[in-house]
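Troubleshooting entry. Yesterday's outputs looked truncated, so today I'm pasting the complete records for two proteins to confirm everything comes through intact. If either block looks cut off, that's the bug. Protein one:
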Amino acid sequence: RDGIVDQESVRVASSFKWTKGQSSVHVQERHVGIYGQWIDTWRPGSDREIALILEDDITVSPYAYVWLKTVHAKYDRLPDISGYTLQSEGFFKANGGGGLVTPKNHVVFGYKLIGSWGFSPHHKWWSKFQDWYHSTRKSNPEFRPYVPNASVVTSWYKGFEKRKRNDTMWTMWFIKFSDQNNLYCVYNNIRRFTGDVNTLLAVNRKERGLH
């Protein structure tokens, strides 16, 4: 709640020792929810920064950073890349019809849906998304980020709306933004490429929570 911080959470976060560089713990001054934590945690400062946004039930491979540095260096120059994801499973067709079959002969592929299980935004488009999101919410509070070409996730979002829980699905806004700007999220395709189902860059433990 606003003005109340769980001190045990702060203690645990502050006691964690990060040995790879500078680190800091940011304590929100007010309750910002999932939207605020995701959308406003990082504001790109330069095109050399690489951010990785993780939820608390994601286990990350020790090779994830190497992969992120590689794909950022290779694809950041392209005009239609929204970001990169460590997500290695849970692929589905945006318009329904089951799982997404990925190309076996490619180590990465692009898809308009964001992979939020370890997302690393493209610095340019993330800044533009933040500005678009806040200006849209301010200028048109009744705006709904429905995407006809992504009927599955739109249906999920509408379901959350009915239960007044759409404030837990920030990804719908990024999907809408990506659709408007014709952007693609770069996914790793390591499991399919290698044929090894145990080869992943990140694992979602799917612990009980808001979803």
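Protein two, checking that the full record survives here as well:
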Amino acid sequence: LYRYPYGCTEQLSSVAMPLLYYNTLASEAGREVDPRIRRGVQEAATQLLDRQGPDGAFGLWSAGDGHASPWLGAYATDFLLRAQREGYAVPRAPMEQAYNALRRVARLNDFGSVGYEFEVYRWPGSNDTTELLRSRAAAYALYVLAKAGEADIGQLRYFHDNRLNAEPSPLARAQIGAALARLGDRARARNAFRL
């Protein structure tokens, strides 16, 4: 991943996410830390922030390009939140914008006001749908918002009570469970993980 040659938002996040913890793990394993890692992670964070539009959404290649999926927006925000907590320079204002965009994604019905691509790319053999993409993206958005202390417990409970049984993605179910656990709703969290 570290040597991956491309640099869209997904690739930047995927390369940099594990590197957030590389030096900590290397140190704990008695291995030499790599000072270049910190610079690379900061560069990735800065590039991602440069791709954020005024509505808080991240572009796939540039700000406002509208090609990134809402799930990818949650992924980029998740990375930036983790980087911020690890001491990287990630200002609060762009994070607030990103959280506002995720709040709209989490509502499942406020997509017109955020610059993500909500249509699924169709190809032979694909069984994905726009509705499934939106549901998975909403679950991830709620999870990231809960990690940031920005989630609405009512939205999480609504998703759990009204949508979770029909949600086919095990990851989305786990994200709802983890978000509910973070906000202290242990009964619903246990049920989500059981599902």
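Both blocks look complete. Sanity check on protein two: The mean pLDDT is 93.
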